[in-house]
Design brief:
By secondary structure, the protein is mainly α. It contains four helices and no strands. It is elongated and about 45 Å long.
């Protein structure tokens, strides 16, 4: 049963994480960050960091993997937002 639950978590993690890829790609390509909210990405980064901490404490591979990748993608957006403002 736990294995099936972890699969649901992995699929959910993949889907919510890849949602960031188009924004990261567009930002890297155009170097345009005017429309992006720095506050939103900082809050998101904080929340995802807390989810990662939770995943580590719960030993949940799906939460750990998804949130590690999301932190990286969010950090890239924040970096470009600060660099190209």
């Amino acid at each position: 049963m736990a294995f099936n639950i972890e699969i649901v978590g992995l699929v959910a993690g993949v889907l919510t994480t890849i949602a960031y890829l188009p924004q990261v790609h567009k930002t890297m390509k155009t170097k345009s960050v005017k429309e992006l909210s720095l506050t939103m990405y900082l809050v998101m980064f904080t929340g995802v960091s807390l989810w990662l901490t939770y995943g580590i404490l719960m030993h949940s591979i799906s939460i750990i993997l998804a949130n590690t990748v999301t932190i990286i993608l969010t950090a890239i957006i924040i970096y470009f937002k600060l660099k190209y403002k």
